[in-house]
Structure prediction request, 282 residues.
Amino acid sequence: MERWIDETLYPSWRQRLRVDRVLFEDRTDHQHLVIFENETLGRVMTLDGVVQVTLADEFIYHEMMTHVPLVALGEARRVLVIGGGDGGILREVLKHGSIERATLCEIDRTVVDMALRHFPEVSAGAFEDRRTEVVIADGLKFVAETSERFDAIIVDSTDPIGPGAVLFTKGFYADCHRALRPGGVLVTQNGVPFMQGAELTQSVTYFREIFADGSAYLATIPTYVGGPMAMGFASDDTGLRKLDVATLSARFSGTGIGTRYYSPEVHAAAFALPGYVQKLIA
Prediction:
């Protein structure tokens, strides 16, 4: 019998994905995890009924979550990734030659193990890189207790349901601020603003209460339906999100990194927000 998975993120709008073959399904200590094959999207991972990653379009999300903050910084050495158990953010972080250590803090070991088994292309060896440190822990607790200071913190969380809900609180953002070096940058997954506008409003409001500058930028990721997706952006360096294309190009060309979505031009344009998004964060 043909099986379809309904994504249950929104109460009045759903997308359905055909399950061509189930590769793994289990309820872990933290969430319901399903990995399956779909003819259009390739392999797909869902957590608690919400799509997390697909092989077809993961590159867009991972490139934009990573290269926007790191190219803006120029010479990041230590990066913390919270969530991101599939390893895609880690993969992109480690492409930057300036990186000395990339710490990944993931609450659910099963996500890492199953991603390594079923999505090895996503991490592409990043977990074996000598610069990688993997910590299986609650990201909320980790940033509250760490004595390390990071150039960038990238929060690759689920939506604010289940174990990911605490990663959208003012207290968590304040602890991220404390764990950043002066002038460091925080980037967060903030959903599709057309559908989840209140979430973006809340996060950016908190950013501006804690950091000197708080805003968002956009990327279009087909799997995340309902319009472009927002990434939250916060720093005490008010110039980081205002760099011109020439500066970004000079920095990015020096990395030698090849990308399929990110470019200096896309980077600069991503901060040009349409009116409805500007209104949400005004």
Summary: The chain has a mean pLDDT of 94.
